[in-house]
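Now for a typical sample entry:
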Amino acid sequence: MRTTKRLLIVPTLLLSLGGAGIASASQATTSNAVTQNERVVVRAPLKVPKLGITGARIIPVGLTRGGQLAVGPSVTAVYVWNNGVRPGQPGSAVIAGHTWSRGAGVFDNLGRLGAGDRFSVGRSVFVVNRVRRVQTLGPRAVRDLFSDRGPSRVVLITCGDRSATTGVYASRILVYAEKV
């Protein structure tokens, strides 16, 4: 059986921003990509017991005109790219959620997760293997976050290090996990 390579447009994270968007589009060649016509449908909630997240709604989103992941305004829901990998399928599903300076943001305490902690999306259970706090990620590292290859994994991402003076978030917190 022959496979053909096609061009997949993937969001890339803008880690130096202070605004609402967290991704912009770039291109990666892949042989196994989700096409632009397919959509991620996630009916199962995200549960992270250690953080008290008992069922965050997962909302599929597209890209803004500027190519940024169109993360919505809800601070209690999380967001996945509608042309990306579904949590539990082979490859890496990226789930973005807000922190909120007034509290009650779904990922306010995301940085408290550590290796060995578990969370679930529906029936799929994931175990955390790494937590990173970064100011920037290169294009290749971002493409790897949105990869459609390899074992089933999830990357949870949110803002971190908010300046009390400016209100700008200086970093992103990334939690990497593999399916159990």
Notes: The helical segments are 139-145. The CA atoms of residues 44 and 122 lie 4 Å apart. The radius of gyration is 15 Å.
